Amino acid sequence: MLAAGTARLRSEGYRRIAVVGESRGAFIMLVALRHAPLAEAVLLMAPAAHGPRPERRPSALAAFREACAAAAPGTVRRGGLVLFADDPYDPDPAARAAAFAAGMARCGAEALVIDRPAAPTGHGAAQDPSFDALFGARLAGFLGGQA
Description:
By secondary structure, the chain is an alpha/beta fold. It has helices at about 1-10, 25-30, 55-70, 95-105, 130-145; strands spanning about 20, 40-45, 75-85, 110-115. Strands 1-2-3-4 form a 4-stranded parallel beta sheet, with helices on both faces. The mean pLDDT is about 95.
């Protein structure tokens, strides 16, 4: 549905589309990267779909890696990933950051990974007012095509 929605926006004349999601929405965007072209840019913040239970961590990491590996070339020009420290939904931040960066490189997309900044922390950290103050301008620039 997400890929169909961005295709519809393109057919209506929108030339630059950026898609931003958090938690389950971010994970849905990651899976949608199989469908080219999706958007100019995507930003995934604390992507999650498997919950925080320890026994689900292996399947959560496997699903994340699989989605990164399935991303289609030409799907996106810029992909951003933000992972937060102390996120109980994140099974392995370092592995996910590496899988995302590799997936974006394989797709020919510029990647930005913000990996566990000192603050804010936790799964809902993107909703903390300090997140925008600390990272808003950088992320907006990246999504808009500036370095």
